[in-house]
Amino acid sequence: MIRFENVGLRYGMGPEVLRDVSFHIPRQSFQFLTGPSGAGKTTLLRLLFMSLRPTRGLISVFGKDIATIDAGELPQLRRRIGIVFQDFRLLDHMTVYENVGLPLRVRGKEESTYQRDVLDLLKWVGLGERVHALPPVLSGGEKQRVAIARALIDQPELLLADEPTGNVDPPMARRLLRLFLELNRLGTAVVIATHDLGLMDQVDARRMILSNGQLEIYE
Ligand SMILES: Nc1ncnc2c1ncn2[C@@H]1O[C@H](COP(=O)(O)OP(=O)(O)OP(=O)(O)O)[C@@H](O)[C@H]1O
User: Fold this and answer.
1) Ligand 1 within 6 A of 211 CB?
2) I need a surface site. Which of 31, 72, 122, 216 has the fewest CB within 10 A?
3) Complex ipTM value
């Protein structure tokens, strides 16, 4: 589904942050992406989301070589990906409910077809009482859960999550992990970038470990 071949990435004239990175993400697979701070996890997720272009090497996403796709095709490809950014990127003027329903609204779905799903998912992530709140009044952990719900609501083919449990306590982290596993069971390939060894130890999943710009994979 996703393929990287000898991918290298440098920012501007800086050193190569990623070097000769090659891997394949199969459909419906589940993997953690880990490595020390600054190792390049966020950079790798940005390449997967096609918001960065590699400086060398080949990336194909859903079977398309990203070097040859035109800008008009990008939104359509991205719509198949759910992403949880480290800084959440919620829309501050929209309520929690509206933020989570947004991917469906953008796809032209009638609110009556998704209202129940949005409310159920918000309840599951512990935000049943915060449905009408605006993001600026939420805690970091609450914002993170809104971002997760928004990424999941449309059952994407690929979920990318950058430190998705970084702002919540261990019981909530376990609950969120269960949600990712359930999504995976329903068919989504999942990539979770995390430092959290405790989280990774709960699942027997593939580990992609970045260090010094290179990737090692433990199946
Ligand atoms: N926009 C940028 N311009 C220049 N250098 C950058 C940029 N973004 C990241 N870097 C550098 O690239 C390297 C990898 O950063 P990245 O954020 O991908 O690491 P990370 O593994 O996600 O780190 P963390 O775990 O701390 O979030 C770091 O040395 C960082 O300083």
Assistant:
1) no
2) 72
3) 0.96
Distance 84 CA to ligand 1 centre (A): 17
Is any atom of ligand 1 closer than 6 Å to the C-beta of 37? yes
Query: How many Å lie between the centroid of ligand 1 and the Cα of residue 186?
Result: 32
Instruction: For the chain, give every domain's residue range.
Output: 91-155
How far is it, in rounded angstroms, from Cα 49 to Cα 1? 13
pLDDT in tens, 111-162: 999 999 999 999 988 999 999 999 999 998 899 999 999 999 999 999 999 9
* CA of residue 14 to ligand 1 center, whole Å: 11
Does 40 sit in the ligand 1 pocket, CB within 6 Å?
yes
Q: Distance between CA 128 and CA 125 in Å, rounded?
A: 8
